[in-house]
Design goal:
The protein contains ten helices and four strands; from the N terminus they run αααβββαααβαααα. By secondary structure, it is an alpha+beta fold. It has a four-stranded antiparallel sheet with strand order 1-2-3-4. The longest helix has 21 residues. The protein is elongated and about 55 Å long. The N and C termini lie far apart (101 Å).
Amino acid sequence: MWGYFDYVPVSTKRANAEKEIIKRRKKTPDIAPVVIEGKKIAKTWWGVAWIENIESYADFQYRLERGRTYVRNGFVIDLKIDRGVIKALVMGTKVYTVEVTISPLDAAKWVELSTRCGHRIDNLQALIEGKFPKGLDELFKGSELFPSPKEIVFSCSCPDWAYLCKHVAAVLYAIGARFDADPTLFFKLRGVNFEELLKRSIDEKMRSMLANAKKKSHRVIKDADINELFDL
């Protein structure tokens, strides 16, 4: 009957996943399985923020727990992120194909967000690692930089008719884990140029520094004060 599947032990699925990776790697050397080390699925700012965003949607909570289990057990045997799309293979009763499409960030909203960042990002590494002021942290999380449910469309080749199957849920978590390895993939996925954000920040900082440099300093010491200071 639809919706009922033969039970496959986790240990068997894990072994099948490992065998499948080895087999597929012979034909597809760039296969990219998601490997979780430790208890946390994601550890960097971008990965954690992505997962927090996904978990905040009530519509997704129905199958998210099973998805966490799947990704932790290494069942996402291939995951590739490109502009606006994620393609993945997930080991279940057999290997299923998952595709997640993310709407690109609106260009006007990206410009607005870049402008609101001001000059609070000093370098590329800080942006990539998420090591920026707390105010910027809150700005990014509160903005539309992260996709809403209506901007996410997904499909899976499994026979589960649920709105969000566990295979898709596993991929949504796996995306956050992949951002740990390469946070720039977040910007690629959303279709924005993170170097543009950095350039705007640096340009704004330079303008601010030049404006301050033109102002007359109140810290100039008068000749009389210098004589008194050095007892001349």
